[in-house]
């Protein structure tokens, strides 16, 4: 089932003329709006706006940065540094990638507008963080 929040986010993205796709989880318990953007530093990031309830949205960039073999420990430390530096996003290590996470307040009245703002914040943080990940993890 496509969640109401997903429909609202889709409408907001459509109004911005952004490229995106809507995906429904096979079990029907969640849906997502998926989009991607090129960062100023030249990297690109795929962003998922996942909803499992009508006003619940988790913003995720699952593969923000690929961790080179042998650099896992350094990636953990760098994520901690970045988590202290940036207020609105959380960096996490998952497998061989660093991901970014943001959550939307559950009771937001304007889901589409809030998610658009979160997207801008995530892209700004990604633009600022990516060069540090590149410099330290290569």
Describe this structure in words.
This protein is an alpha+beta fold and 138 residues long. The chain contains 3 helices and 6 strands; from the N terminus they run H-E-E-E-E-H-E-E-H. It has a 6-stranded antiparallel β-sheet. Helix 1 packs across helix 3 (111-137) and helix 2 packs across helix 3.
Describe this protein with a few key phrases.
elongated, alpha+beta, 6 strands, 138 residues, six-stranded antiparallel beta sheet
Low-confidence parts, pLDDT < 50 over ≥5 residues? none
> What portion of residues belong to β-strands?
25-35%
Helix content: 25-40%
Please give the order of strands in the largest beta sheet.
Answer: 1-2-3-4-6-5
Number of DSSP strands?
A: 6
Write the layout of secondary structure elements.
Layout: H1 4-15, E1 21-24, E2 31-38, E3 44-53, E4 56-66, H2 72-85, E5 90-94, E6 97-103, H3 111-137
Antiparallel strand pairs: 1-2, 2-3, 3-4, 4-6, 5-6
Helix pairs in contact: 1-3, 2-3
Give me a quick take on this structure:
By secondary structure, this protein is of the alpha+beta class. It contains three helices and six strands, in the order H-E-E-E-E-H-E-E-H.
